[in-house]
């Protein structure tokens, strides 16, 4: 009986840790939001891992459809492609902090986590002239020290309502997955990069965006940045 009880306790502890690290609604390691208010028919498109050489094509599609978005950028990519980072800002999109080198934070020290976000914060500010107010952990994985980094850098953690798995799915599947999870106030997570990879192929992401925007508008949804979604002016 003792062995069974210990096994149950270990399983429960493991499940709780998994929830704390990865669940969008978890706030164990720091305050995070995963959706906006549900009283308005508005959603936010977000893109992780950029900027990349492919980001400009995505910007063209967003401009064509007149949609604002929030880009969670990696500091190392910003330093590598400063002109692209500035284009995101110049197009009127919001920029968030997605760490400097896109590491997995699990089992990393609080100092490491804070340094990653601080380096990215400094890179984004220096290149674009705008200091992010939002952050998103790489892989959505938070860890001990995440809360301290948020507090010291004064950043709000943002997760997602629905994630498109666009780094491995084709456009049809991305669109279907997002539409299944959509609702008022949804934060949609897609990617304009693939970690720190150069010249990533995001054609399926762009095609999914091309199809999603009119589908969502037909359902009555409008598009906002994450900050607008969380703090509407009207």
Structure description:
It is a single chain. The chain is of the alpha/beta class and 234 residues long. It has one domain (2-230): Alpha-Beta Barrel (TIM Barrel). Helix content is 45%, strand content 14%. The chain is built from nine helices and nine strands. It has helices at residues 2-22, 55-64, 75-80, 82-90, 110-128, 146-153, 171-181, 203-218, 226-230; strands at 32-33, 42-50, 70-73, 94-97, 134-135, 156-158, 162-163, 187-191, 222-223. Strands 2, 3, 4, 7, 8 and 9 form a six-stranded parallel sheet that branches. Helix 2 packs parallel to helix 8 (203-218) and helix 5 runs parallel beside helix 6 (146-153). The longest helix has 21 residues, at 2-22. It is globular and about 45 Å long. The mean pLDDT is 94.
For the biggest sheet, the summary is:
6 strands, parallel
Q: What CATH architecture would you give?
A: Alpha-Beta Barrel
Record field, number of beta strands: 9
| Number of distinct helices | 9
Give me the Rg, rounded. 18 Å
What is the name of the CATH class? Answer: Alpha Beta
Which residue ranges are poorly predicted, with pLDDT under 50 across at least 5 consecutive positions? none
Task: Work out the count of structural domains.
Answer: 1
Summed up:
With 234 residues, this protein is of the alpha/beta class. The chain has one domain (2-230): TIM Barrel. It has helices spanning 2-22, 55-64, 75-80, 82-90, 110-128, 146-153, 171-181, 203-218, 226-230; strands at 32-33, 42-50, 70-73, 94-97, 134-135, 156-158, 162-163, 187-191, 222-223.
